[in-house]
Here is the input.
Amino acid sequence: MTYLRHVLDHLRKDLRLEWRSRDSVNGMLFFALLVVIVFSLAFDPTATESRLIAGGILWVAILFATITALNQSWAREQRNQVLDAQRMAPSPASALFLGKVFSNMLFVLLVELVLAPLFVVFYNLHALGNGWLLALVMPLGTWALVCNGTFFAALGLRTRNREMMLPLVLFPISLPALLAMIQATTGILTAELDPIQIGWWIRLLAGYDIIFTTVCLLLFDIVISAE
Amino acid sequence: MNRQADQTIRPMQLVAFSWLVVTLGVLVIGFREAIFLVPTDAAQGDVGRIFYYHVPIAMLSLAFPFLNFAASLAFLYWRHRDPLKALSADAMALASAEVTIVYLSIVLSTGMLWGKAAWGIWWTWDARLTSLLLLWLLYVSYLIVRRFSSTGQSQTIAAILSVFAAVDSPIVYMSIRWWRTQHPAPVFGGGPGSGLDKSMMPAFVWNIAAWAMWGIFITGYRYALERRRQIAEQDAALSAIEASLELTQ
Here is the structure.
């Protein structure tokens, strides 16, 4: 119970900080919008083609946008040695991590909510398959990106050129999840995959989330106290 | 005093040298078996001989990540408890990661050569190929991270990354069992019809022994080199501290 309270405290603190500055959400939103526009200019999508590539482009836009926010997400903890204070605080390190992941997750979901209608307009989309499955794929996929991303952003705090390091590490590790998200999303939009296959990709995504969230939670204590 | 010790041949050097000689001998036997003695594959012709290099090295390229994983876990365990042991665990992790990259690169390139001859294409995005490429990417990023991070922290960061990479290697192993792929079905333990013909066995066994011995030799050699670098670094740090103490006196 106290663990949950610690997580919520961290979450509330991050939300308040974000509410006052609105740095990461605004940055992410504009960046994702730009990626979507650049891609739609590059491919000039017509209705049938757009469904085939939209899943990939959507996730690439979200991935790039997430990276821009994640690079900053720990930087605000470093000002005035807040991170050192948190390290010495009696709350478990993984609670700090979970709070951070939840807040980043909320920011990215917010961006997705704004992005989705724009996407439908620009790419002239309507789902041919079970559209409601997207409500399952989007959070699971976002969690996979945000959880690993937050973890490796914390790892990158102590490296030279950390803006460079995060994508170098995060992209290879997220590839299985990205593959599953893109396959599932495209399958839903085009209705070309049968429901069993889509269900299989979603299960793979859920398994990925469980495995990597566990690994992150177990190792975060080492990351935060690495001297 | 140290210099005199360096001039005599130490027992480990003797072991390493004789290991290398035996390895080279086994490599020659394996080469002779695979290229000259095994009957030509009925379906594939001489291209099939690449099997004796591709498969043993592929098996080993999934074995060395486990060494890397074990060494990284040992590093994380000893990090605060016994820093000197942790350093040697870290040297082992680095050595095995580099050897893993070498093996994975060989697997990818021999696989491409075979694919071009047998399938007519260099590369296809099938589950086995993709997951192996992923493992290669993970270990490349492992080595890059070691370069990027400032000294003193690179080991911890690398060890944590190694745990993530280790999650992938069982996926590579299982990929041709879970998915129906373009990659040939497993040769060993793949159910009925798997396994090798008797005439192919010697070439396969000699080659896997040879490449395992070669990998162990390179890992050991790289480990010794990294240990020397660590010791030289410690000596330099120690003499810097001593020099600063003399200055203040």
About this structure: Chain A has a mean pLDDT of 84. The two ends of chain A are 30 Å apart (CA to CA).
